[in-house]
Amino acid sequence: MKLLVVGANGQVGNALLRALAPLGEVIATTRSGQLDDGSACERLDLADVEAIAPLVQRLRPDAVVNAAAYTAVDRAEDDRAAAFIANADAPARLAQACAAQDIALVHYSTDYVFDGRGTRPYREEDPTAPLGVYGESKLAGEAGIARSGARHLILRTAWVYGLHGHNFLRTMLRVGAEREELRVVADQRGCPTPAWLIAETTARILRQGIAASGVRHLVAAGETTWHGFAEAIFDEAVAQGLLARRPKVVAIATSEYPTRATRPAYSVLDTARLRGEYGLALPDWRDALHRTLSDRAN
Ligand SMILES: NC(=O)C1=CN([C@@H]2O[C@H](COP(=O)(O)OP(=O)(O)OC[C@H]3O[C@@H](n4cnc5c(N)ncnc54)[C@H](OP(=O)(O)O)[C@@H]3O)[C@@H](O)[C@H]2O)C=CC1
Ligand SMILES: Cc1cn([C@H]2C[C@H](O)[C@@H](COP(=O)(O)OP(=O)(O)O[C@H]3O[C@@H](C)C(=O)[C@@H](O)[C@H]3O)O2)c(=O)[nH]c1=O
Ligand SMILES: [Mg+2]
């Protein structure tokens, strides 16, 4: 199988290069034409939407996995045009290019398409109502792909972290080493999900073949708050000798941590449909965190 990974320097993109390698030939694209390890790869700036179809036509992969996105949630509020190009226009063009050559497309979306007023885990068909530009632009990307006619799978995931890239885990490890005390919001509930879990699940799905086009939810099992996640990070980091001492993690309300974009208060995702369709078991978020920190290869 020949696979094209778009956005290979991101958290998920980086994990995909490892997870997809056993499936065959993996071609990577990044904005710069270089991978983070310094090696050369294909260059694709999604802002240059006209370059997308020619690249896909030239490389003719069996499947495209799009891991590129504008993910700076607060910055997107003041950078709407750029967020929409990367998260909506470019994925739609990519999907159209895939449709034209009967290439399968795997794409990722977010829990931030929901407004967070739900009271039970969100299912795929639940009404969306994004609270900010990032979520709005990702939702527009979902719609553009659905309209393209491409064989596709849109995996909505959430709270992605890993040892590579910008994420909450790395922020906590950095800030936790510098400060005695941290303040973290305890009234936003969700599902922390490591990049390796997303990548390994994607590999499994591609091996089996996409069962049916559409949106599916993919997150680690269980739920917590950002405060609960921070506490677990410090428990694990101290237990595994990554941090000498545990900072105090003070539980605060969202109102005490003002940000440019509003986040959903509740964005737990129900993964039953994906698990049923592909016969998957998804690990509990704590076990997934343990593996992320103990298995440094990830
Ligand atoms: N991070 C999270 O918590 C969550 C992420 N998701 C979704 O999962 C997917 C993967 O996210 P994640 O790995 O965390 O994202 P990252 O922010 O780690 O990586 C995104 C990558 O996209 C690249 N990119 C952005 N704009 C462009 C562009 N115009 N042209 C080319 N490349 C571009 C970035 O390149 P550069 O480094 O050059 O900017 C970066 O390498 C995305 O679809 C995201 O929306 C869903 C839920 C949660
Ligand atoms: C660093 C820090 C954050 N926070 C809060 C802010 C926010 O509500 C929450 C998490 O912070 P982040 O900046 O990592 O959150 P955020 O960038 O909103 O993370 C989101 O990214 C996008 C791409 C997604 O798709 C989402 O699923 C989600 O993972 O924790 C604290 O309360 N204290 C702190 O010290
Ligand atoms: Mg962020």
UniProtKB/TrEMBL annotation:
Keywords: NADP, Oxidoreductase. Pathway: Carbohydrate biosynthesis; dTDP-L-rhamnose biosynthesis. It catalyses: dTDP-beta-L-rhamnose + NADP(+) = dTDP-4-dehydro-beta-L-rhamnose + NADPH + H(+). Its EC number is 1.1.1.133. GO terms for molecular function: dTDP-4-dehydrorhamnose reductase activity. Pfam families: RmlD_sub_bind. Binds 1 Mg(2+) ion per monomer. Its cofactor is Mg(2+). The keyword NADP applies. The keyword Oxidoreductase applies. Residues 1-295 form the RmlD-like substrate binding domain. Catalyzes the reduction of dTDP-6-deoxy-L-lyxo-4-hexulose to yield dTDP-L-rhamnose. Belongs to the dTDP-4-dehydrorhamnose reductase family. This is dTDP-4-dehydrorhamnose reductase. It comes from Lysobacter stagni.
